[in-house]
Amino acid sequence: MRILIVGGSGVTGSMIRSNLHAYDVDVWTASRHRPREDRDRHFVMDVRRKPADAIEVMRRFDWIVNCTGPFEDLGDTVAKLSIQAASNYIDVNDSIDARREIRRLDPDARAVGVHVLTGFGLCPGLSTALMMNAVDTELVAPESVTGIRTDLVIGEKQVSGAAAIGSMFRTMHGDYRVLRHGVEATLDRATASRPVEGAVANDEAGANADGRTALIGYECPDIDVVTSLFPNLLGYEYRVAFEAIDDAMVTKLQQSRVFTLPVVSAALARLAARGTARSARATAGPEPSTLTVSFDDSGVRSTVTGLSSYAITAVVPAVTLGALLETDTTILDTGPGVIEVAQRPAMVPHILRGVKDAGATIDVLPAFDAPPVARGRATGA
User: Fold this and answer.
1) End-to-end Cα distance, the chain
2) Are 214 and 247 spatial neighbours (Cβ–Cβ below 8 Å)?
3) What are phi and psi of 165, to 5 degrees?
4) For residues 239 and 151, is the Cβ–Cβ distance under 8 A?
5) Which InterPro entries does the protein's record reference (predicted)?
6) pLDDT averaged over consecutive 10-residue blocks of the chain (381 residues)?
7) Is the peptide bond before 221 cis (omega within 30 degrees of 0)?
8) How many whole angstroms separate alpha carbon 368 and alpha carbon 355?
9) In angstroms, rounded to a whole number, what is the distance separating the alpha carbons of residues 131 and 333?
10) CA distance 215 to 137
């Protein structure tokens, strides 16, 4: 199996490449600039400015792994080029809008006979697998779940890519989308901290499960798939806490327009990325992140901890490709087209086992001190 990692010289791409070394695969990378290391197994490639050249490179590979970003900007660009190259595709996309664009490529993927796997990262991806596993292990009954909340606490001293930081700037500043009363709703950050009937109180100011850091409303493509897993679901939301960012900086990121200006925000993101790299090099390693999926007011929750958020993100596509290699793609269950974790239950054990093998701890248990989750009516939509 020949694999090309687009964005392979970045933080996530480098980790995916390392994870793939455990399998009998031929791994190459591609990005807009030539890296300092592994230069002889790298293609300089610009998917926006020279798409025809990118297609010619992609044609040489069985699978394209896309970890470029921000996905909010690139959308379905790399997936579309992969289909034109007749190469299979997998990504770590975490953008709702990009997910919807990629889903619309399903007829094109089927026409050329390729698999397009989208949302195989931390959230969605692992978060989706945790929800499906809770049903499979009878921790929850799908018909009885009316509210779900996913919380991610990102530990300090993590190396962060400029694209990811730029995406964070944009997401933290604007409104964000959740599921309320079974429909998508857009919450205004100015009003989201006010309690809403049946919803999470103190959305913006509420502490995470360990009471350490404020959780910030975010977005996740799981919003589009959770109702297919839980037919009576009324509310879903995703919240993130950054332990490296103090409350004053959180307020500045949310209120200052400078972080939304393209040129300025890009420069600030690159500067911040260099700062996180220096901080990480000066320490023994990043603090672990914690991903928690909570179900209803029952206190039932599934938790993953022990790895950085980047490490978790990188494991999921690598172990998925490894499982495909070992099972000769039968794990995909059906023919070609656009595929998500929620559509393929057979992938869940491989993802969870791969995350554990990478050093994470997964706890699936009733935890009666879990915070309440969203179930209320739509507000701010």
Assistant:
1) 46
2) yes
3) -70, -40
4) yes
5) NAD(P)-bd_dom_sf (IPR036291)
6) 91 92 91 73 90 95 92 93 97 95 97 96 96 92 93 78 66 81 82 38 40 73 95 93 69 66 63 59 71 86 92 94 77 82 92 94 68 40 27
7) no
8) 25
9) 20
10) 29
CATH number of 126-308+361-366: 3.30.360.10
- In this structure, the number of other CB atoms found within 10 A of the CB of residue 328 comes to 8
Q: What's the pTM value of the predicted model, to 2 decimals?
A: 0.84
Cα 270 off chain centre by? 21
Burial of 243-266, coded b for 16+ CB within 10 Å and e otherwise, reads: bbbeeeebeebbeeeebeeeeebe
31 pairs with which residues across the strands? 44
| CB-based contact 149:237 (threshold 8 Å) | yes
Rounded Cα distance between 255 and 259, Å, is 9
- Checking 355-358 for CB contacts under 8 A at 24+ apart, the result is 355/126, 355/304, 355/307, 355/312, 355/315, 355/316, 355/319, 357/319, 358/19, 358/307, 358/311, 358/312, 358/315
One-character DSSP codes across 165-217: HHHHHHHHHS-EEEEETTEEEEEPTTTTTS--TTS-TTTTT-B-TTS-SB-EE
Are 110 and 198 contacting, i.e. CB atoms less than 8 angstroms apart? no
Domain positions in the chain are 2-121+311-357, 126-308+361-366
